Task: inverse folding
């Protein structure tokens, strides 16, 4: 290998992407060339130092603006997908007549409904948009590779509607499959928000036999006791009798059985 | 765990109409994109606008995404175009090197002082300054390869050149950085 060839490999070497024969040839050249050896070491130190430069963090506005934009785009798509047909009632003359009729009807209706606490349609729509945005943030964060991001996703799940099935499914999936125990524990706690759904109770019962971490097992057992879930008796009985299971978990399962009876 | 779903597969879903999945890609990439723009234009506010612009363009051009290609490379191609478009708009606003330095000084002021930053004999404030003085093309290739963790193959796709060319350009960029760094060090000593 010539010095020229070695220089073209240095970026790979610093980036640790040199392997096999290329790496062997590069190392052999360095062993015999003082000039390249010195350059690799000197410039390599500078390359490493770039890691120490402070990382810029965007402000929270970036996330807010993104979700606003995405929400608006989805809404736009939904409107565009709605069938647009020009019927007789879309003709201007009919529209004017209909507007006048609606005004009269609206005034009458408004008078009739005065004093009731019905929220205006705009407020309901706004609430739906906010709920949809929260769901989106929770679901997106729960799919991230970094455990700290997934934990944030669990926190967002608390802001979702208790009837939100997609968030519920994502939490159950985190309890069953997340590789990080802190995320699994946080997801178990977040399931309390969805206590009113029979699906949640069933999912917690089903999740228990698959868990091997005592902390998560105990958290799930506590949750079943809080839910007063009598259907969990079989699973708890098996757990309490299983010699392979941690002693503390077995005791907790026994205690839960007594509470549920 | 859904976190293992690759970027290309998620983008293919977006492309097929599941636009809500773009949020997954946003959460994965918006910080890195922001840092890329800050490194290139030294303006936090503009960088935030550009991040927004990139994700909007991804939505707009989602149908043109080819799942066989690297999503990261495609996204940075879009990012470069967004950056170029913004630079064209701001063409009238000529920013000289001193203004660059002032803006950058604001950005690094929150960082620890040089005394605390000395590592392996490198002064990080000087290093930051050297990076700013690096010509734009060299700075960009260093940022992509060093800070964005992109493979040489992906950078080649973004820049539209051969992988071998990328390797040589990365080498030349880091050598140029070294020269600027030593020149600044001399200035500081004198």
Result:
């Amino acid at each position: 290998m010539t010095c020229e060839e070695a220089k073209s490999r240095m970026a790979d070497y610093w980036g640790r992407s040199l392997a096999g024969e290329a790496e062997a040839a590069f190392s052999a050249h360095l062993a015999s060339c003082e000039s390249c050896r010195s350059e690799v070491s000197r410039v390599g130190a500078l390359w490493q130092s770039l890691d120490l430069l402070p990382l810029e963090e965007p402000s929270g506005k970036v996330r807010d603006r993104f979700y606003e934009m995405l929400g608006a785009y989805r809404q736009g798509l939904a409107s565009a997908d709605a069938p647009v047909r020009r019927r007789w009632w879309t003709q201007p003359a009919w529209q004017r007549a209909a507007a006048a009729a609606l005004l009269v009807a609206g005034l009458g209706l408004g008078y009739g409904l005065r004093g009731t606490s019905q929220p205006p349609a705009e407020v309901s729509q706004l609430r739906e948009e906010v709920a949809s945005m929260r769901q989106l943030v929770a679901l997106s964060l729960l799919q991230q590779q970094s455990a700290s991001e997934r934990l944030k996703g669990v926190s967002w799940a608390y802001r979702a509607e208790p009837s939100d099935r997609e968030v519920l499914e994502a939490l159950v999936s985190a309890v069953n499959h997340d590789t990080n125990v802190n995320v699994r524990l946080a997801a178990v706690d977040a399931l309390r928000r969805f206590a009113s759904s029979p699906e949640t109770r069933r999912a917690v019962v089903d999740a228990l036999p698959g868990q091997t971490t005592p902390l998560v097992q105990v958290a799930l057992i506590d949750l079943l006791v809080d839910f007063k879930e009598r259907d969990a008796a079989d699973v708890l009985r098996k757990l309490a009798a299983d010699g392979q299971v941690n002693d503390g978990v077995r005791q907790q399962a026994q205690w839960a059985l007594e509470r549920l009876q | 765990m859904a976190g293992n779903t690759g970027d290309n597969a998620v983008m293919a879903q977006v492309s097929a109409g599941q636009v809500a999945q773009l949020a997954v890609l946003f959460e994965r990439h918006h910080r890195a994109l922001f840092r890329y723009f800050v490194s290139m234009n030294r303006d936090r506010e503009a960088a935030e606008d550009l991040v927004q612009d990139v994700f909007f363009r991804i939505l707009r051009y989602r149908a043109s995404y080819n799942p066989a290609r690297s999503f990261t490379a495609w996204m940075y191609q879009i990012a470069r175009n967004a950056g170029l478009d913004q630079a064209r708009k701001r063409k009238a606003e000529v920013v000289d090197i001193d203004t660059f330095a002032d803006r950058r000084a604001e950005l690094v002021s929150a960082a620890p002082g040089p005394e605390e930053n000395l590592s392996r004999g490198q002064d990080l404030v000087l290093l930051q300054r050297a990076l700013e003085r690096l010509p734009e093309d060299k700075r960009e290739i260093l940022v992509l390869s060093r800070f964005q963790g992109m493979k040489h193959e992906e950078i080649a796709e973004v820049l539209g050149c051969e992988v071998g060319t990328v390797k040589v350009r990365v080498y030349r960029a880091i050598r140029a950085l070294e020269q600027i760094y030593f020149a600044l060090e001399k200035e500081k000593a004198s």
Observations:
- Residues 3-42 of chain A form one domain.
